[in-house]
Specification:
With 729 residues, the chain is α+β, with helices and mostly antiparallel strands. The protein is 31% helix and 18% strand.
């Protein structure tokens, strides 16, 4: 087919326009062109949050959203370490007032035995307002527009955007009281009801009362749809509003850890209007629930909840405003973390979280600049990280050239292997059992495990308390002397010969029972069975093989495994714990006898019980941090290390990357409301995205040249033939 000269010129002009316009938006961008220069943070999620109701949520992937939306009374300072509580919606961090059994006030240094109650009086900041929401929409007479919706009025309403009118109101103390009452709501099954019932005065009885009322409501209604339990009509003795901006929480005895709970979404405010709005008939079937659409006073609000595609947080236009912190820890100023001191926050207008189920696509998009930060999977570790001869960790040359930054932090978590102390072979408090457990602890080379399976992202644990938590000791004073020696300024695992001697002293020379000659066979109970699990199980068997102990892997499904743990029939198992709050009590209670999983359904998965440890724990748990508390912790750790109910495992170490345009990015392993502190240099991001994603134009240019070269002779020939035909005519 021939192309007239005019059309050829048009084609070339079109190619030129395409090429000249390509610097506006990279061709491979996954985002709309209009977002190119906007102040948006891009991140991802792997699975949809199950609960966004603050009474029910207790998962790390949920608090990513809740932390930006809800404002409990307190929060953690973004920059300071050790972690420090500061006010959020409250005016100050409350100090407990101690009372005796008659309700008389006691001095602050009153003996713990004299304290019958601790009372926290919390005054919130006036002027805080909720995000716009249809639950608050009202007419001129003050009547709520959407509180008595008929089935006909619900037709066509499937999202909050289908309610055209919104409203707001001021946050008041009774909203906090209402939410604490919701912890006892029988339809919500709050995961902390059991624990809080042990402390908040009257909460256990309150849950029973609500249970009876709820059953009556269900019987009278015939189903749960459209039921509203008005908690305002049922007083809770331990929690009440004193005035518009002040409320009190009364707990039993002393419990200093209560202030940490006041920084969690469980104790964020929920207004009754929102609870009522979502309780109307037809709401739940449309996913119009507080579990789906949280309502808060924080800097952001959830505007898109599409778990198959994306979730979006946008600025709350009613947010009262805060300022960026003016101080941090040593090194923060040099790291540029105090450049925005005193400026109003939040800095970012919107945060878009895309569903990414696979690591490789996510990683590639991060390298292209389409995600602002990233973790490091095993598949991408070598591409991102280089480890020096001395074990020092740094970024590869490619990452450095892109300006990518690396941040590492030891998590406030522990992963450990536990012995069931109720088991007749590995459990018990006999010297024989202790030496068996100690021998296995020496043989279990967690340094090698961290190197092979975690790419070095972990620290071998010397006890249950991670770094950064009061009670943890570094250096020689902090090692487990039954498993490690201190050599040349570092802990060194004892040699395998020491483990074999202990095994023989335990009555199992060469891995055989000295009395019967039978080989020692132990059982590891676990879940899973994929390729990665097989590699870990093979490694685990090799550790026991060092002692000629036969290890049998008993893999099962999750429910069966949980049954074994609850019934105390597992023998050896893998477990972990992530801190709810930065206090040693939150780790040492994992070894407290009264928290036995088999006996009390508690979190003491090893079912460890030592009378002296328990007595020290009861003294330590409610003390303020200081030398006396540290001394008690040291004694407790000495007992636990001697008894060895755990193979102490490791503290995971987080590695995270972020691009140069993401500012004020500092790991905070306790705070979950950190989005408001971060800032994006949108101009730098836009420029680097264009550089990194510039299309390879030379093939297109070459193709254009070849097209012209091939077409021009044909055009010339065509014109010559036309000319000759014209002359003949």
């Amino acid at each position: 087919m021939t192309i007239p000269i005019k059309q050829l010129g048009g084609l070339l002009a079109l190619c030129w326009l395409l090429l000249s316009g390509c610097d506006e938006q990279p061709w491979n961008s996954p985002y709309p062109a209009g977002e190119q220069a906007e102040n948006i943070l891009y991140s991802s999620f792997e699975e949809r949050p199950k609960h966004l109701d603050p009474a029910r949520s207790y998962s790390s992937n949920e608090v990513v959203f809740l932390g930006q939306i809800y404002e409990p009374p307190l929060q953690y300072h973004y920059l300071k370490r050790p972690y420090e509580l500061i006010p959020r919606s409250a005016e100050t961090v409350p100090e407990p007032v101690y009372l005796d059994a008659a309700g008389n006030e006691l001095p602050a240094d009153a003996p713990a035995g004299d304290v019958a109650y601790s009372e926290y009086r919390i005054r919130i900041r006036p002027g805080i307002r909720y995000q716009p929401h249809p639950a608050f929409a009202a007419n001129e007479a003050g009547e709520y527009l959407y509180h008595e919706l008929s089935p006909g009025e619900m037709e066509g309403r499937h999202a909050l955007q289908d309610f055209p009118h919104t409203g707001s109101r001021e946050l008041v103390a009774s909203d906090f009281v209402y939410q604490i009452k919701r912890l006892a709501h029988p339809a919500l099954h709050s995961p902390i009801l059991g624990l809080m019932s042990e402390y908040i005065v009257g909460l256990a009885d309150y849950a029973d009362t609500l249970g009876r009322v709820w059953n009556e409501l269900k019987q009278s209604n015939g189903n749960n749809d459209g039921l509203y339990l008005d908690l305002r009509e049922h007083p809770l003795p331990g929690v009440e509003a004193i005035d518009r901006y002040t409320y009190r929480i009364r707990i039993k005895g002393r419990y200093p850890q209560m202030v940490y709970w006041l920084a969690m979404p469980f104790f964020a405010p929920v207004p009754w209007e929102v609870d009522y709005f979502f309780s109307q008939p037809g709401m739940k079937s449309r996913n119009l629930t507080l579990d789906w659409y949280p309502v808060g006073t924080g800097p952001y609000r959830l505007t898109v909840n599409n778990p198959n595609l994306e979730m979006v947080l946008e600025r709350n236009p009613n947010f009262r405003g805060e300022t960026y912190p003016a101080e941090g820890e040593p090194g923060d100023r040099e790291a540029g973390l105090l450049q925005d001191t005193g400026k109003p926050i939040p800095f970012i207008d919107k945060a878009v979280f895309k569903l990414e189920k696979e690591q490789i696509p996510y990683w590639n998009k991060f390298l292209q600049g389409y995600y602002d930060s990233s973790g490091i999977s095993s598949d991408s570790f070598d591409q991102a990280i280089k480890v020096g001869e001395g074990g020092e960790v740094g970024l590869t040359q490619d990452m450095q050239e892109k300006g990518i930054r690396l941040q590492t932090a030891v998590a406030t978590s522990i992963f450990y292997m536990g012995f069931n102390m109720l088991d007749p072979v590995v459990g018990g408090d006999s010297e024989r059992a202790r030496k068996l457990r100690r021998a296995i602890a020496i043989a279990m080379d967690y340094e090698e495990f961290i190197s092979i399976f975690l790419n070095g992202r972990g620290v071998p644990a010397q006890g249950p308390i991670p770094p950064g938590i009061f009670g943890h000791r570094d250096g020689e004073a902090g090692i487990n002397p039954h498993v490690y020696d201190w050599i040349d300024g570092e802990p060194q695992r004892r040699p395998i010969e020491a483990a074999r001697r202990l095994l023989a002293e335990a009555g199992y020379p060469g891995g055989r029972d000295a009395e019967t000659g039978s080989p020692l066979v132990l059982y590891f109970d676990t879940t899973g069975g994929g390729p990665d699990d097989k590699a870990r199980m093979d490694w685990l068997r090799k550790q026991f093989d060092k002692l000629d102990i036969q290890l049998v892997i008993r893999a099962t499904d999750y429910n069966r495994f949980q049954d074994k743990m609850r019934n105390g029939t597992a023998q050896i198992f893998q477990w972990g714990w992530n801190a709810d709050y930065p206090d040693p009590e939150n780790f040492l209670f994992l070894l407290y006898g009264e928290n036995s999983k088999a006996e009390k359904n508690g979190e003491n998965a090893a079912n460890y019980r030592n009378g002296e440890f328990d007595r020290l724990f009861e003294r330590m748990k409610n003390m303020d941090n200081g030398p006396q508390r540290q001394a008690l912790i040291d004694d407790m750790l000495a007992i636990a290390r001697r008894d060895g109910p755990w193979l102490w495992g490791f503290y995971p170490k987080s590695f995270s990357l972020h691009h140069a345009w993401l500012k004020n990015n500092k790991p905070n392993l306790m705070a979950r409301n950190t989005l408001k502190y971060k800032r994006i240099d949108t101009e730098l991001r836009q420029r680097l995205r264009r550089e990194w994603n510039s299309p390879m134009l030379w093939p297109l240019v070459l193709a254009g040249i070849l097209l012209v070269a091939a077409t021009v002779p044909a055009v010339i020939g065509y014109r010559r033939r036309m000319y000759m035909r014209g002359r003949q005519d």
